[in-house]
Amino acid sequence: MKKSVKILIVSVVSALMLVSALALSACACKHEWSDWTTLTAATCETEGVMTRSCSKCGNIENKKTAALGHDYGEWITLTAATCETDGILTRRCATCGNTEIKKADALGHAEVTDAAVEATCTKTGKTEGKHCSRCNAVLVKQETVKALGHVEVADEPVEATCTATGLTEGKHCSRCNAVLVKQEEIKALGHDFANYIYNNDATCLTDGTKTAKCSRCSVKDTVTAENTAKGHVYGKWTTLVSATCETDGVMARSCSKCGNVENKVESALGHVEVVDEAVEATCTAAGKTAGKHCSRCGKVLVAQKEIDMIKHEYVDGKCTHCGAWVITEGVEYALTDDCNSYGVVGFSSKAAAEVYILPEYNGKPVTTIFESAFAGSNIISVHIPDSVTSIEQSAFSRCGRLTSVIISDSVTSIGDSAFSDCSSLTSITIPDSVTSIGSFAFWNCTELENIYITNLTAWCKISGLSALMQYCSNNKKLYLDNELITNLVIPNSVMSIGSFAFSGCSSLTSATIPDSVTSIGSWAFYNCSSLTSVTIGNSVTSMGEWAFQGCDKLMQNENGIYYVDGWVVDADENIVKAAIKKGTRGIAYGAFEGCSSLTSIMLPNSVTSIGECAFKFCSSLTSITIGNSVTSIGVGAFSGCNNLTSITIPNSVTSIGGGAFRDCRTLTNITIGNSVTSIGNYAFYNCSKLKEVNYKGTQEQWNKIEIGVDNAYLTNAKINYIK
Length: 723
What we know:
With about 725 residues, this protein is mostly beta strands. The protein contains five helices and 65 strands. The strands form 18 sheets. A nine-stranded mixed β-sheet has the order 50-51-52-54-56-58-60-62-64, with no helix packed on it.
């Protein structure tokens, strides 16, 4: 049917082409042809026909297009070829779907040799064979070869000796070396020694030997012949080293048989004592004690010690013995830098007990006691004249016998460690002229109890007063104009009471601090054990660490909180909640420090000051109410309160001290009043959760606040400006 259709189409196309040709020949038109259009599309195997027409005369022109040809894909396996059978491949035209088939030749076997296996005495073997590595077909079969069987050989026996083992007879295969009859080990026989003969070789101290021969193998054995040593035969003792008064001598003798030498000690002779007469001391010449020496060797047995010149006995400054004026031997003087005066530079005497420092030397005043001038000396007391203005560093340090010192009104400064380690010092007079006391000036003066002063204002103004009061006796007595102070009244001219100012003054029973005083230093009244009453002026804004610690008769305990005249100075370590009583003016340094169970605290409006470290390490504190009168929050006041999440600082506060909220790791929100002008270094250090700050002022006011270093969590937080 398809073939008939194809013939018909071809006939029609041929007729059309003929008609077109005739029309063209008959027409004289200058044709304007249209584009070619397809009449019959070409296929893979047959031609197609295209046509066009003239727009003037309508004449039609046709032409043929070539057959397309098949577009076959890759050959695909229908049936895979094997070693012995052909396979079938096919492919398909992508245009018309026509398929084409062809044969794939058989692969043939891939021959592999199976190696022969040699037969052994006990195992069968195999002949060489072959198989196909592709289909595993056996091409040449391997035949089995029978086992060969053992070839038996005898193993000769070995006779045992004294030292070597033997073997019984055995058998093995000469082909495969398999043991057929195992050879058993025969133990060694061991030597047979008898009839030992002495070798006559003993010495004075060591036994000789004896020897025997083995009856079986002729080996010899030599052993000790017990109790054959003969002992030394010594001659007379002779002297090698002669004995002296103090050292032993040495004597020797030798053995006539072996020449051995034996030594012994000859005891020392001992000294022959002779007495050396004593020499009496005078004011101008030293004496000597009686001594002894040996007449045999000349050695000093008891040394004659030098006796210091006898002390002058002065009446009106003149010695009754020799008429000399008061001069302490050993005191060494040297010109000062400006050469206008002298100073004491050293003290060479070890015997002097009482020292007089001259007011004048070589016609010039003595103004200074230089560094370490009397350090380590044996002086008991010292008289410092009115000409001296300065006592320098370590001037009297380590004077372990020094008991009292009177410092003249002219002295203005006492240097570092000036009287350190004066362990026998019991009293000292500090004049009004002294303005500074150096570090450790009275360190380890643990017996110093009596301190004499003449002016309380001058006393309170001394810089470094702690260097005296901290290191002397814990049972001090302070005298004002030679009268023991029991009721202390601080003058109105005093503005601050320094650290340790009255520490350990056990005689104090009351103290009145006027309104002129603004600060009380650390340890100021520490261990004033008799103190029962204190009045603190309203101007005090800061109270140092342990200012009244140890004043057990003074402090009032109210619900675990300890008060001293309107100030909280301490609290029980296990306190949980604290409501500060009305009228309280301040929280002293470290008052609640380390109260790890404290969860909340309420400060009344009367409180004006929160001291340094006041609530440091209150690790359970979650809530605190600060009254509207507080003007300052001290250094480290809330440091380490790592459960505190928020806090409101009222408008009355003007300063937040360094490290005030350091390590408050859970603090997320804080409200700061508009009066704050400064925030110290590290104030919010390590407050890693602080994200928002509510500031009761404008951005302009916030930008004027002086914020110290390491406050990144504060400055990076969101600032909300509120009214």
